Each structure stands twice: as C-alpha cells, then as structure tokens.
Amino acid sequence: MGRVLVVEDELAIAELIALHLRHEGHQPRMAASAAEALAAVTEQLPDLVILDWMLPGDPGTTLLQRWRQDPRTKSLPVIMLTARVQESDKIRGLDAGADDYLTKPFSPGELMARVRALLRRRAPEALEAPLHIGSLRLDPAARRVYHLETELHLGPTEFRLLRYMMSHPERVHTRAQLLDKVWGDHVFIEERTVDVHIKRLRDALAPAGCAELIETVRGSGYRLSQSAPG
Length: 230
Known about the structure:
Helix content is 39%, strand content 20%. The protein is an alpha/beta fold. Helix 6 packs across helix 8 (192-205).
C-alpha cells in the first residue's frame, strides 16, 4: 500500500493513527515535530502525510508551505488533522497547500477513507494524452501545466481540478460534482472547499492571463471556457 508519515506530537493520537494505517496495509512512520518531519521526508519521500497544525517549533502550516515551495515535495499529498475548527482556520490550511482538512476529535474510519481517496488519485496517468485549450497545455504524465513555453505552478489539488475541467470544457459543474470527480466520493468535506481551490487555481493561472477561463455560473457552479488567450 502506501508509506504514510504521521506528524503528530501527541503520542496517543499518533499511535492510534498508526494502528489503523497498519490495519489497512500501510507503512506508517511517526514524527513529533516539524524538524523530525523535515528529516523524515528528506530521508525518504512518503506517499502521503497526515499533518497536525500545532507542533513543537514551526507550525504545520509553515512546514506545509515549505514543502509546496520545493519541487521534490510540491505534489506530496497532505491531510491536515487539527483541533482548529474555525472556517478561517480551514481556509488557512487549504491555502497553505493542504489537500484535505479534518478536525479533532475525528473518526479513524473517516480518516482512513480520506487516506484511501488521496492515494487513489496518485495512480499513474502516463498513458493519457496532454490536454490543450488555446495555448494552455496540461501534461498528465509529467503533472505539469504550461502556457506557451512557460510552466505554471499548481498545487496537486488545483492540478487535478484543472485536469478534470479541461477534460470537460464548457460544461457547468456543480460543487457537489467537482467534489465527487476531483476529491472522490469517499471524501467527506464541505462544498466550500471547492470555492477555496477554484480561487487558488485562478491565482495560479493569473500570470498567464488565463484566470478568466474559470467562470462562475451563479446558482450552478463553475465552467471552464474554451476561449483561451494566446
């Protein structure tokens, strides 16, 4: 199955998560601080990270932002697991680069479902042809997006979101449909999450003048226009 790094300073919680991961066939490794997590990822890149926000030393959000700025770890799937339950905290966690956000106290069964969903999305896409809309090109095999010859830097969730919308241009997608198709039908997150990642996707496309491709259809959802610049 997968190598999962559990970054959690409360030993009882870390051991509980590790127990359930082993039961599912995963190989858990534990880190109790940001420094330990950095060392673990440097030594061996995991398939997924379960990350607490409040850690000794640097907070989880700072660690996550550092990973997202490193080409080696920018696509590393991360589930943020934290006691911070305010909507503003969830938005900060997602904006920092988390692929999913789960609050404590949590259901181990739900956490494992989210782990499965994220790992499923790491399935190889090497046989898929690149997608083009105007001068915007998405390469599923390389997991890269280009405008003309310039690479645009997208987070892993924004990449999957753009890939799905480029595969179905001009179609209006509700938030529920995007959650199902991009996040997976076993992930239990709020529809508000879609809005956060749409904003992040637009921000990533903005340097190429392509942010307007992602249109908001009031009362319905979102649509990707084929009227690409250039």
